Structure formats: C-alpha cells, structure tokens
Structures
1.
Amino acid sequence: QVQLVESGGGLVQAGGSLRLSCAASGIIFSYYTMGWYRQGPGKQRELVATITSGGRSNYADSMQGRFTISRDNAKNTVYLQMSSLKPEDTAVYYCRAEGTYYWGQGTQVTVSS
C-alpha cells in the first residue's frame, strides 16, 4: 500500500520559516520525481516545486528563491524548506509522486500578517 504522509505545517508569522516533510512508503522512492503542490482557499491546486531522483529541482516562479526542495532517498523523504513566508502562501501543501495518482493527505500552512 502506497502512503505519502506530510508533516511540518502550522501557523507562522509573515517573514517566518517552516520545513515540510513527506515520508513515502510502498514505492521505490528513489525511482520517482517528487513534487510539492499547494491549494489555497478558493484556489486551484498549483505546483510549488519538483525534484528528480537525481536531485535536480524546479520551482514555480513565485516560489523561486524562497522555497527549497530536497530529498533523502535513504529516508524515503522529500522536504520543502520555506522561508520569507507571506500570507498568500497560506494553503494546504501536498506531496506527490510525479506521474502517478499517489498524493499525500496534505498539511496546512497558515501565515499570519
């Protein structure tokens, strides 16, 4: 059974930082490009960043420079380090094994002004 479990969300003030984690099980984690997505209130789900099995990363323009995606294949975990957070970053953040239907349940990030 495939599971992607996000953690690390919470309430933070504008300008603060958070580190999200997504632990995978039931898949050969190192084979997959992994992605972080988010869905804000009343908005569509959007891509935040992806990272290939070899560690090459790609970011949405609005996150470039503030967010960093990384992975630890030995721990089957992908991370999202978020800094200089803004209220508009408030959303539920999801991880995904790219090219599959495997999504996590999401973790809420709320940024107060």
2.
Amino acid sequence: QVQLVESGGGLVQPGGSLKLSCAASGFTSSSALMSWYRQTPGKERESVAHITSGGGTYYEDSVKGRFTISRDHAKNTVYLQMNALKPEDTAGYYCNAIGGSVNSWGQGTQVTVSS
C-alpha cells in the first residue's frame, strides 16, 4: 500500500527554520517525482519544490535560496529544509509522489510562521 507521511511542521518565528519529512512506503521514492506543495485556506494548492528521480530539483520563485529539497534513499524519505521563514510561508505542506502507477498525497503538516 502506497503511503506518504509528513512530519516536522510547527510554529516558528520569522527568520527561523524547520525541516519537513515525507516518509514513503509501498514504493521506492527515489524512482518517483517527489514534490512538496502548500495550501492556505481559500487558495489553490501550489507547488513549492520537487526532486526528480535523477536528482534534479525545482523551486518556486518565492522560496529559492531559502528552501532545499533532498532525499535519503536508505530511509525512503524526502525532506524540505526551510530557512529564513516568513509569515507568508504559513500553510499546510503536502508531499506528493508521481511515478509509474503511483500518484499519491500525504495528509499534510501545518507550518505557522508568527511572532
């Protein structure tokens, strides 16, 4: 059974850091396109970053230079290191996997940036 479980969200002050994790099971995440999305109430879910099976990365303009996506093959886990957080980064963050027969979302983890 394909499953994605996010963790690592929380409340952080502006300028702080958080590291989100997306633990995959039921498939090999390194063979999939793994993405992080975020969503705030009333808005569409937007892509934040992704990493391809070949290791290529993409970042949405507003997070370039602040967020880093990475993967640990042994742990079958994808990470999103978020630095220099801003209040506008506040959102639910969701992990997505696409590859072969896999097209799956995690349940999300809330990130709140506030003083």
3.
Amino acid sequence: VQLQASGGGLVQAGGSLRLSCAASQRTPNNYVMGWFRQPPGKEREFVAAIRWSGGNTLYADSMTGRFTISRDNAKNTMYLQMNSLKPEDTAVYYCAARPSLYSGSLYYTGVTEYTYWGQGTLVTVSS
C-alpha cells in the first residue's frame, strides 16, 4: 500500500487545517490507519488511528477534542481535521497503515507497529 499525505501548510494559531492521506489501492477492511507527527528536533509521536472497517477511532490524550480522524472508503482516503491549532502543533505529519492482528483491534500507537508510511506533510502554526 502506498500512501500520499497532503494538506499541510502555514496557518495562524487558532486556525484549522485538514490533512488527507490517499491510498494507492483499495484499503483492506482489516487495516488500521494512523496519523503521527514529528515536531522539529523531537521524536515521531502518535496522533490518532482509525479502523478502516467500522471507523472506530483512537486518539492520543493531548489531541482529543481538537483533532478528528475520519476516512472515506469510496475514495480510499483518510483525513485529519485539526482545529484550534497551536504553535506546538507545528510538525511534519505522517500517515501510516498496517493490518490489524485481531478482529476489532485498534490500539496501535507505536511507530514501529506500522508497516506502510506516507512521505509526510509539513504543518506550521504561527503565533
């Protein structure tokens, strides 16, 4: 599966952006897709994940309430709606995918747990 992330850019604090992650082929129903981000000089961190079948979602505690992950099965595309952006949200945002090991499993939050990665899209939030 090849992933293409897009939608990053420069936004003022308090603004919104929607990131997209397009898959090159139909995403299997047993896949989990996720968003990670890597702030300048820091390690990559988990943002959110979604089960392709059913749409169950999981968020990092610090993202709950401001970020919303979703997917469009027909377009093979995942989204990350980011609202009330803060300067500390500045990072390269990556999308990732992996098959889930067990039916209903979603709790994949580690970088090494994902098999496929997009190239990243830069989000810069100015104060």
